[in-house]
Amino acid sequence: MKRILALVLTVILAFLLASPVVAAGLTISPPSVEFDVPADGSTEVEFLVYDFTGDLEISLEDIPLRVEPTTVSVTAKEEGTTVVLTFYGDESVGSQVFTGKIRFLALTGSTVAMGIKVKATVNHIATGEPLPQTTPQESPPEGAPAPPEQALGPPAPSQTTTEWPTLQMVGIIAGAAIIVAVIVTRSRRRRY
Q: What's the farthest any 2 CA atoms get from each other in the chain?
């Protein structure tokens, strides 16, 4: 019986170690950006991606401009992988300040494993038009509930999300079920 248990545990351990950890975590730095985009041109902005290997799908939320590339392949490196995004101006919208988010969706195959939104303030500048004046946002009184955007994420220098890959979770659950079954079977044999 001990040999069977040792064999089962060895197979489970080998399965868990052999399964790839594609989407173990994802960190994007900086967590927020502010930059200018000329209406008749473009601007490049650099981000560092940590703890992820795979494809990132990039899109904009509440920013009516175009960004390229929309998909980037990333390989995890200790010093981070640099991703350069190009934002293109649009002369038809004039001078405006856009406040929105840049979405980074981590893909494993065709499934979104996790995502991070980076806060972005884009000063879209048209030639000969001044930017509209924006009033600084007042901070809420102490003790007041945080706005929904702030309540969702921790105030950290970079936003991180971690998810256990499905394959490893299945292996852990299967291994635990086998161990419980072996223990129950062994304890029943002793009684009789």
A: 93
The tens digit of pLDDT for each residue in 130-182 reads 767 654 444 455 555 544 444 343 334 444 444 445 556 667 777 778 888 77
d(CA 169, CA 192): 36
Q: What is the pTM of this model?
A: 0.57
Q: At the fourth CATH level, which superfamily is domain 22-134+146-164?
A: Immunoglobulins (2.60.40.10)
What residue type is 89 in one-letter code? G
Contact 63, 98 (CB under 8 A): yes
Q: How many CA atoms lie within 13 A of 15 on its CB side?
A: 15
Tokens read off for 35: 């930059």
